[in-house]
Amino acid sequence: MLEQELKEVRGDRTEIQNPAPAVAEFPEPADLLNQLKAQRKKSRADLGDVEVILRLLELSVALVRVS
What are phi and psi of 52, to 5 degrees? Predict the structure, then answer.
């Protein structure tokens, strides 16, 4: 009886059937910097800052996927 319910629930849930991609896609650092500069002309961030932020985001995404 419980096995049948489990099968029904799994069949209804699209997240289980279509798992999220394993790798997050982030824009290129230079593209992100250009977008930032377009929106905030006085931003003091440089390309190195954006690269570090992207690395931190990639690490946090990897940690979320592990847990």
Answer: -65, -45
> What's the token pair of residue 39?
């929106």
Single-letter amino acid code for the residue at 42 = K
Q: Is the separation of the CB atoms in 61 and 24 below 8 Å? A: yes
Task: Enumerate residues 6+ apart whose C-beta is below 8 A from 29.
Answer: 47, 50, 51, 54
Q: How distant, in Å, are the alpha carbons of 16, 20, 31 from that of 50?
A: 34, 25, 10
Whether the model pTM is above 0.85: no
Rounded Cα distance between 36 and 28, Å, is 12
Q: What pLDDT is stored for residue 11 in this prediction?
A: 72
Q: Do residues 29 and 54 make contact, with C-beta atoms less than 8 angstroms apart?
A: yes
Q: What span, in angstroms and rounded, lies between the C-alpha atoms of 59 and 47?
A: 19
